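assembly run, all chains below
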Amino acid sequence: MLLRHTPKEVIAREGLTINPAKTCQPIGAMYAALGIHGCLPHSHGSQGCCSYHRSTLTRHYKEPVMAATSSFTEGASVFGGQANLLAAIETIFSVYEPDIIAVHSTCLSETIGDDLQQITKKAKDDGKIPEGKYVIYASTPSFVGSHVTGYANMVTGIAEQFAQSTGEKKEQINIIAGWMEPSDMREIKKLSKELGVKIVLFPDTSDVLDAPQTGKHVFYPKGGTTVEELKSIGDSSSSLALGCISAEPAAIALDKKCKVPFETVDMPIGLSATDRFIMSLSKAAGVEVPDEITAERGRLIDVMTDMEQYFYGKKVALFGDPDQIIPLTEFLLDLNMKPIHIVSGTPGQRFEKRMKEILRRIPEANFKNGLNADMFLLHQWMKNEPVDLLIGNTYGKYIARDENVPFLRFGFPILDRIGHSYFPNIGYSGSLRLLEKILNAFMDRQDREALEEKFELVM
Amino acid sequence: MEANIHFPDPSKVREELTQRYPAKVAKKRTKSIIINDPETIPEVQANVRTVPGIITQRGCSYAGCKGVVLGPTRDIVNIVHGPIGCSFYAWLTRRNQTRPETPEHENYITYCFSTDMQEENVVFGGEKKLKQAIQEAYDLFHPKSIAIFSTCPVGLIGDDVHAASKEMREKFGDCNVFGFSCEGYRGVSQSAGHHIANNGVFKHMVGRNNTIKEGKFKLNLLGEYNIGGDAFEIERIFEKAGITLVASFSGNSTVGQLENAHTADLNVIMCHRSINYMGEMMETKYGIPWMKVNFVGAESTAKSLRKIAEYFGDEELKAKVEEVIAEEMPKVKAVIDDIRPRTEGKTAMLFVGGSRAHHYQDLFTELGMTTVAAGYEFAHRDDYEGRHVLPSIKVDADSKNIEELKIVADPELYQPRKTEAELEALKEKGLEINGYEGMMKQMMKKSLVVDDVSHYESEKLIEIYKPDIFCAGIKEKYVVQKMGVPLKQLHSYDYGGPYTGFVGATNFYRDIDRMVNNPVWKLIKAPWETAGNGKGAELEASYVTQ
Ligand code: SF4
Ligand code: SF4
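ok done. output:
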C-alpha cells in the first residue's frame, strides 16, 4: 500500500493539508497567457516558481511551455522587484521578441508588495516597451484562491487590458473559456461553426499546446487569440462565460468596462451542461440549432440508453476543479450513477451551492471545497464508504491502486497519459468519450476479476 | 578521437550565442561561455545570478533542499511551510524510488504535506498554523522525524521555523522536528538549497546514533538520490563486493541510516555539487575522509570500485572487487558490442544539473560518442575546473548569507580513519581523496562549456552543432525535440533507468541507441513536403489498362 499511513478515521485538520486537490495561482495565469497569440508569460518572483509551473505544464502537455522569470534573489526580496521586472522586460523584448508579455505575480512579489500596474506603467514611460507591443499583468498571490482563480485573474486581466469599445457593435459573441484543454477549445470552435455563430474565443490554447511536430521549434505557435481579436471583444454583442469560477470574472470585468452583457453557463461537460451551452449560444446569436448537432446529441443519448445497466447505482468519488466537476457530477447523475465523495481544493461558496442543488437526490453524498478539502480526506471517505470509480488527476492513481478502484484520469494535471490535449471532454462527442472511458474502466475490471465460471463473452 | 570531430570556430559560436542580448547581458553571458582546454583550464563564470527575463533551466533553493536532498528519505514527514504550490510541484516529480524493509514500514514519499498558507497567515504570521500542522502530522502518523521547509513568503514575514520546530520537538520528546530556511530567493539556484540541506541534516541528524554496524568495509554513499533505482543498482554491487553501506545521502535512505552515518569509514561522493559540504563536515568532525567516485558508466563503476578497494587497502576486498568486475563486465560488453557500431561517431550535448553533465559523458564515451558542449544548471566553478580553484572563488552577495557551519572535531567521536601520510599515498595512486578534478579536464580541447545555458543559447547551439542527442530536463525536452533532435532527460531519465552501475550502463546504451536511431525522426516531413507540393504537379504514374 503506497498510501498506507492514511487512516480510516477522519479527524478534522486545520493546519495541515495532505495531498492537495489544488495548486497555486500563477500556473493558471501562465496557462491562460499561453492562449494569447505571440504572448510570453512572465513570472514575477524567484525563478523556482516559474520552473515548477513550466515543468508541470510541460509534463501535462508534452509540449514546449515557454515563460520567463524575474529571477529574484535576496536583494530583490528586500528592496522590491521593480528593477528585476524592468530589466526582464528589456531582455525579453530583445531576445524573445514577443508581441505581448503577460506578467503574473507570485507569493514573493505579493508579500513584498510590488505593484505590477505601477511597474508596467514605468516600463512604458521609460520606453522599454517597443511600439505596438504590450505588457499586461495579473495579480496572482497563491495564498489566495488556487490555480483556477489564477487562471481567472489572468483572463480578467486580458479582457480588461485589451478590450476597447469603438461604439460600434460587432456581430460576434465572446466565448470566455474556463480552464479547459486545447482539445476542448477546438471543440468549442467547431460547435460554434456548426451553429453558424461568429465567436471570439479567449483564451485559446489550441494550436499552441498541441502543436505539430515539424522539425522546427516555433517559439510562438500559430494558435492563440490574437491582439486584434482581443481588442474587438469590447464591441461584441455579448459574452458567454464557461464556468463560474474560471471564466465569469472576466465576463464581469468586460461588462463593466465595455458594457458587454454576459451569461455564465457551466462548462459543457456531459449532456445537460452541453444542452445549456448550445441553448445559450444559439439564443445569444439568434440562430437555430442545426440537425447535425441534434444528431450528435442523439448519439450520446443512444449510448446512454444502450448501456444504462452498467452505470446504474455505481458509486463514484471525484476530485478536481469546480468548473469541471460541477457539470461532471451532473453528468454522472444523468447516467444514474452515484457521486458520493467530492472534493475540490479551490475555495468559494459557489461550489457548495451548486453541489447542494445537483446532489439533492443523494443526501448521503460528502462534498467539501477550499481549505483542507484534499485528497487525503477523499481517500478517508472512500475507506469509510467504498466506491466503484475514482475520477481525478494523475495523483489519484495512488488511491486507486491502494483501494483497487477503477480510475478515470480527468482534470489537471494528467502527467502520465496523453489524450487530454487531443480529444475533447466537452460537447456531446467529448461526453461520449468520457462515457466510453467510464465503461471501459468498469468492463476492464470485470474482465480481469470475474470468476472463471462467471466469465463470459459479453458481461 | 579528436580528429573525427569538427568543431565550429568556437569564438564565432560565442558571438552568435550572445549577439541578441542587450550589451550588458551579453557581456555577462560571455564569461559563462567558455572554450575548453583541458591542459590549462580556463575560468568559467558560474553560480552567479541569472539575468531577469532570461529563460533559464534553474529552479530555487527550496527545490534543492526539499526536492533534491531531503525528498528521498522515506520516513521523514516533510512539511512545506508556505502557500500550496511549492509543495504540490515537488510531489513525486523527482522519481526517488525507495524500498521499505517491509510493506508496513514507514514511507511518506507518496504524500504531500503543506501548511497551505493563506492571506491572514501572511499578514499576521504563520507560525501558529505551522505548529498546528506539526501537531496534526504527529497525531496522525507518529513519525520519527518531521522536517519543515520554508518557502519564499515565510522568510519575509519573519516566521521562525526553527523556534517552532524546537518547541514542538521538545513537546513531543519522541519526534525529531527541525526546520530549513530554504526560501526560494536564497542564493541563485537550487545550489543554495543543497548547502542549507547539508547543514540541517548534519546538525539535526548525523551523529545521533552511535551503534556500530557490522561489516569490515563500511562507507556512506553521498549525493546519490535513487532516481529510477540508481541507488538500488549500486547497493547490489556493494553487497556483491562485500562493501557495507551505512547510509545513503539520500536515495533509498531512512532517518536511522542518516543518524548513524558517522560510524562509516569512508564517504564516497557521487554528486559533488549537492553534497560536498557533508563530506567536508564529516571529515572535520569525525575524521572520515571523502572520495569522489562515479558509478555512471561501466568503466567508471569498475574504476570507482577499485578505488574503494584501494582505499581500504585490503587484499581480499581487492580480489573480490576484481571478481565482481570480471563477472559483470562480459554482460556489459555483449550489449555495447552490439550497439556501439550504431552510436560511434555521434555527438552529444549535456546541459543539466550539477554533476550529471559530467558523469554522463563517461557513458557517451563508452558509446563512442563525443560531447561537443556541456554545462551545468547550478554548479560552481569547482565542479567545472576542479576543487583546486576553491580558494580563488569570490563569494558574492547572493551566496554570502548562506550559513557556513563552524565545525570542529568531536571531542569523543573524532577518529581519523587514515593518517595524513596514508591519505597522501592514496592520492598519489590517483584517488580523488577530498578532491574533485571537475568536468573540464575530461572534455576535449575546443569543446564548449556553458554555465546556466539559456533557452536562446541552446536553440542556437543546436542549430550550429546539430548534435545527435541533447541531454537536459523536462522544460527543455519538447522544445529540443520539436527541432528534430532527441532529448534525453537526465533528471527523470524519461522514466527509465537505473543508469548507474553495470546494469544501468546497459540500460543507458539501449536507450540512447533507441533514441538516436529511432526511425521516427526521419518521418517528420510529410511526403508532399519533401517531394514537392501536389498542387500543379503531374501524376507520375497512371493506371495502365491491358
Ligand atoms: S505557491 Fe507561491 S511561492 Fe509556491 S510555487 Fe506557487 S507562486 Fe511560487
Ligand atoms: S521560488 Fe520560492 S515560492 Fe517559488 S517555488 Fe521556490 S520556494 Fe516556492
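Chain A is about 45% helix and 15% strand.

The pocket of iron/sulfur cluster (ligand 1) is lined by residues A 24, 26, 49, 52, 106-107, 142; B 82-86, 151-152 (CB under 6 Å).

not gonna interpret more than that til we talk
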